[in-house]
């Protein structure tokens, strides 16, 4: 192996030594380096994403037998794609643990999420494929890379969440995260939608809603917005609220600019953001702010509570642009027509958080918390 990267050698000489001495067993090169797992993040040069990726690519290129090993792997005994199998092996070596199972949990829009089972705690492995553009999703291959960049800045907010990240052979990017247990807000509200109006149910819902608001208030206090709130991105754990999918998060630190922010899912996009998207070309990012995020969370809660998004679309099957227009025009449902039962205090808080005009809307998560806790307050 050639010692080309003097910066890397200088900063982590013992790791470089092990890389140089490593035999190839068709594993990820870093699987040969037991020392890597024990190095604190702040002291390991390889944890700086750009450097990690550069050294990763460099190390891979040094092991010519890898291609033969890839071909051996791709036999009928391995139903999972090779990239997942080899990343699971790599994660095993990183975590000093043996992967006991691989499960595909999500596969859409060019991005796949696998649950890797480990005795010491499962891992969510997210792969953003380079072919995504062919499936009609622009920039998807960069999303895992961008999310890794965001999470690197948010390590204090999401302690221990980001495990590792890198590039996929042949393009695309991957991200390994701690698996988080929890239910979505939609699931929490299911009994309420089915008629359970008991004080215990109301209490549970309100507490959960306040916990989510508080978690987002913490994020906002750090200068970040999640910017892609939707039911699947909020997991209510037994003791904490987890936010996931930070791929589109907007914050004070510059990130590679190859992902253009054009809002999240249409149901949760604030009217003013929808109007900006409609008024600008697709390659131009749109701004998002705290009131827009208040709207997004309230829309998630509205959907969980009534089974309907806040906007009454002209046609449910209308194309995305037409739905955005309905959102921008503030065409909202009449709650009386869709509520499962009467809960004026909760609906009052949602109403003020979903006000189409941003200047009249609850402006921040802390104010949203007040509205939920003392529900007759307006903005
Ligand atoms: N760390 C995690 N812990 C538990 N579940 C997770 C984790 N990461 C992802 N998931 C599961 O995988 C699903 C998809 O994850 P995520 O939203 O991050 O990926 P995505 O590719 O961006 O999906 P989408 O395009 O649908 O937003 C989540 O809704 C959740 O069910
Ligand atoms: Mg997602």
* Poorly predicted regions: 1-10, 23-29, 37-52, 58-79
SSE pattern = HHHHHHEEEHEEHHEEHHHHHH
CATH architecture title of the largest domain: Orthogonal Bundle
Kindly state the number of beta strands.
Answer: 7
Mean pLDDT across the residues is 82
Domain module count: 3
- First and last CA, distance: 64 Å
In percent terms, what proportion of residues is strand?
Answer: 5-15%
Structural class: alpha+beta
Output the strand order for the largest sheet.
Answer: 1-2-3-5-4
CATH superfamily of the largest domain: Transferase(Phosphotransferase) domain 1
Tell the overall outline: globular
Ligand species: adenosine-5'-triphosphate, magnesium ion
User: CATH topology of the largest domain, what is it called?
Assistant: Transferase(Phosphotransferase), domain 1
The Rg value, from CA coordinates, equals 23 Å
- Biggest beta sheet summary: 5 strands, antiparallel
Q: Helical residue percent? A: 40-55%
How many DSSP H or I helices? 15
Question: What is this entry, summarized?
Answer:
This protein is α+β, with helices and mostly antiparallel strands.
Write the layout of secondary structure elements.
Elements: H1 6-11, H2 13-21, H3 34-38, H4 49-61, H5 66-73, H6 82-95, E1 101-108, E2 111-117, E3 123-128, H7 143-153, E4 162-167, E5 173-178, H8 185-193, H9 199-221, E6 234-236, E7 241-243, H10 271-279, H11 290-306, H12 320-328, H13 335-338, H14 344-353, H15 365-373
Antiparallel strand pairs: 1-2, 2-3, 3-5, 4-5, 6-7
């Amino acid at each position: 192996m050639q010692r080309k990267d003097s910066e890397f050698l200088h900063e982590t000489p013992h790791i470089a030594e092990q890389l140089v001495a490593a035999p190839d067993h068709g594993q990820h090169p870093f699987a040969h380096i037991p020392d890597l797992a024990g190095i604190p993040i702040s002291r390991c040069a390889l944890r700086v994403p750009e450097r990690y990726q550069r050294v990763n690519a460099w190390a891979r290129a040094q092991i010519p037998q890898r291609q033969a090993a890839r071909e051996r792997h791709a036999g009928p005994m391995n139903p999972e794609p090779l990239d997942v199998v080899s990343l699971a092996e790599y994660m095993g070596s990183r975590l000093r643990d043996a992967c006991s199972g691989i499960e595909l949990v999500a596969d859409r829009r060019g991005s796949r999420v696998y649950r890797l089972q480990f005795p010491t705690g499962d891992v969510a492995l997210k792969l953003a494929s380079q072919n995504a553009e062919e499936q009609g999703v622009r920039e998807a291959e960069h999303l895992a890379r961008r999310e890794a960049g965001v999470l690197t800045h948010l390590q204090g907010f999401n302690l221990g969440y980001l495990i590792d990240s890198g590039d996929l052979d042949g393009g695309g990017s991957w991200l390994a995260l701690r698996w988080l247990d929890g239910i979505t807000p939609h699931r929490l509200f299911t009994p309420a939608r089915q008629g359970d109006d008991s004080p215990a149910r109301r209490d549970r819902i309100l507490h959960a809603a306040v916990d989510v608001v508080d978690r987002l208030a913490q994020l906002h206090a750090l200068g970040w917005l999640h910017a892609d709130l939707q039911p699947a991105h909020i997991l209510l754990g037994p003791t904490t609220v987890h936010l996931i999918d930070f791929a589109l998060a907007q914050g004070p630190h510059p990130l590679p600019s190859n992902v253009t922010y054009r809002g999240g899912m249409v149901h949760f996009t604030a009217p003013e953001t929808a109007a900006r998207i409609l008024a600008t070309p697709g390659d131009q990012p749109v701004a998002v702010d705290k009131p827009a995020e208040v709207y997004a969370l309230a829309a998630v809660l509205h959907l969980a509570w009534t089974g309907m998004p806040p906007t009454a679309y002209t046609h449910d099957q209308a194309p995305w642009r037409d739905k955005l227009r309905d959102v921008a025009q503030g065409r909202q449902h009449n709650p009386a027509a869709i509520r499962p039962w009467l809960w004026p205090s909760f609906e009052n808080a949602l109403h003020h958080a979903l006000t189409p005009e941003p200047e009249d809307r609850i402006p921040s998560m802390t104010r949203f918390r007040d509205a939920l806790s003392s529900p007759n307050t307006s903005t």
